């Protein structure tokens, strides 16, 4: 389901986030995006990061936002700029935690994708 949601195959990507065709539900949208990130979909990683940065569907958390933007920036144009904007709002300690978290998530995503093949 996460893959379908991330790619838009049969399910509009932002239907829950924007309320297209269904009742607007940022929490549900967050869960869909999260499942898509597990398979390494950069668009979902970017969207999840924005939800963390804005506190939309989840408690605002710049550490998690930065970590997801770090991963998304490998494939999404503009994600690096957003990551840097989020980073400017963080302490040095938070930045270090976010970078460690990004490395951890990248390893988990790589393992999930390896197992799925």
Task: Write up this protein.
- The chain is mostly helical and 117 residues long.
- It has one domain (2-116): Serine Threonine Protein Phosphatase 5, Tetratricopeptide repeat, CATH 1.25.40.
- It has 7 helices and no strands.
- It has helices spanning 2-7, 15-18, 26-37, 42-54, 62-72, 79-87, 92-116.
- Helix 5 (62-72) crosses helix 7 (92-116).
- The protein is globular, with a radius of gyration of 14 Å.
- It starts with a helix and ends with a helix.
Entry keywords:
mainly alpha, Serine Threonine Protein Phosphatase 5, Tetratricopeptide repeat, 7 helices, 0% strand
Structural class: mainly alpha
Indicate the percent of residues in helices: 55-70%
Architecture per CATH nomenclature, i.e. the level-2 architecture: Alpha Horseshoe
Estimate the global geometry from the Cα principal axes: globular
Instruction: Specify Rg, calculated over alpha carbons.
Output: 14 Å
Question: What is the terminal-to-terminal distance?
Answer: 16 Å
Strand content: under 5%
Q: Largest sheet, if any?
A: none
Helix segment count? 7
The CATH class is: Mainly Alpha
Q: Which stretches of 5+ consecutive residues score pLDDT under 50? A: 1-11
Summed up, the domain count is 1
The CATH topology label is Serine Threonine Protein Phosphatase 5, Tetratricopeptide repeat
């Amino acid at each position: 389901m996460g893959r379908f949601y991330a790619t838009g195959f049969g399910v509009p990507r932002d239907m829950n986030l924007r309320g297209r065709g269904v009742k607007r539900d940022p929490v549900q949208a967050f869960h869909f995006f999260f499942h898509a990130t597990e398979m390494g979909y950069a668009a979902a990683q970017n969207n999840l990061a924005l939800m963390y940065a804005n506190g939309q569907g989840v408690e605002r958390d710049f550490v998690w936002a930065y970590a997801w933007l770090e991963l998304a920036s490998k494939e999404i144009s503009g994600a690096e700029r957003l990551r840097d904007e989020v980073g400017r709002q963080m302490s040095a300690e938070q930045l270090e935690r976010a970078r460690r978290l990004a490395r951890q998530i990248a390893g988990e995503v790589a393992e999930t994708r390896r197992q799925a093949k």
